[in-house]
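Re: folding output
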Amino acid sequence: MSGKGVTAGTHLLVETALRRLHHFQGDTLVRTYPVAVGKPETPTPTGDYHVVNKMLNPGGVLGTRWMGLDIPGGNYGIHGTNNPGSIGKAVSNGCIRMYNHHIEELFPQVQIGTPVRIVTGANVAQSAPGETYVIQPGDTLWQIARRFDVPLSTLIELNSLANPHEIYPGQVIVLPGSQSAI
């Protein structure tokens, strides 16, 4: 296992703005799934969390599988749904909903303790002027450039980064198309 922490293991990345859940094995993307996320009044909390419990067939609005997350201040999880028409929308009370057949595929590949990063993840093409991104633990500028489909040199220039290796969690960077925000 490398010094990056999650490089060798399974981890999940949820992009709420794009309503996608990405399943990674190390640095390799295994699969991307469409999801439903929290509505504006009850948004899905962003941050770094872990799967803390799993349940088969919780039923009702939770569908066929539940994976609870250690998000403070509530009972949040990644789960199936009895409302498949909600997938792709911001309609939940903060949970991440998946089609039942997708959560059934993912469930056995995720263990208790699996890291889950939840980010806004707005695509640059969908970014409004003034769009920024908050660096998360484990991010590299190269990953951010790939995620937002932006040339690395553009991010470096736009943010006047003397050393692209020296970014830190909580740092706010400006994305292209939002130069007026500088």
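--- second protein (sequence, then structure) ---
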Amino acid sequence: MWRYHRQKLSVCLLLLLAVLVLAFHQGELKDWALRDSVDSLGEAVTLAVCGAWLSLIISSRPVGRITNYLFFGSFLLLFSATLDLADEVLDYPPEQRLLSWLESFPAPIGMVLLTIGLFGWHREQQVISRQLQGREGFLRDHQLIDPLTQLYGPVYLHAVLNREIKLRRPGQTLSLLLLDIQGFAGYNRNFGVSAGDELLQRLAIWFAGQLRPQDVICRYSGDCFVVLLPDTPPSSAELLAQHLQSQLQHICTEPLVLQTVVQPVQDQSAAAALQQLELSLLQAKTQPSSRHAAYSRVWY
């Protein structure tokens, strides 16, 4: 953020330097016996705090109207604090009133500007909080996030699949990969629901770690996951399915089998593509010798 404020910061620091040069030119150093160490310490702490405020604003705020209020308000306080500290070590001639004015007037103006900026910053945070609350409510109300695995759910899968279909370029491939955990119902009966939930969470993390950043994995039903693979032909999706099947035994020692179904997505709606995926599963269920497995329960 510093580079965005470089110009006005340079101008302000040059102005402060010019006033300090004027102060040392007009004033004379006080004797140590005449300096108040307590006042000097207080002014130094005030100067350090104002500098910290200005540094935080510059390093964390983007350019804009609210940032300008905060920046110039903090700088004017820093300006006054610097001249206050200089006043503890310099003795100005009685006829020199300019430096006294420069020491006194910027502080109240800076406090007003800083207050306006803080009020605007507060309103910004209120808007951001409302947006975050609205997004959280949207996710919760529409069940886009599965609460157990923290993966996306079928509602999100429908939305992103429709988007990919509409935005797909000519010749671009799009595949769906279904991952069905065979034997999970028996695992739940033998070890309990809590153990089954823990297994699903572990598998969800592992599945997500095996995918590319552009891939989308969703929990489609209790023990069934669907992966959306953009720019992926069915042959590549088959290789991914074989990799996941071969590696499952290294992830869990339970007697589970990962069955897969790979399906290319044509020019159809998301609902039609997922319905076709379910039909493929249903056909595979009626053919026990098939390398695919069926799964007929679906969340909507």
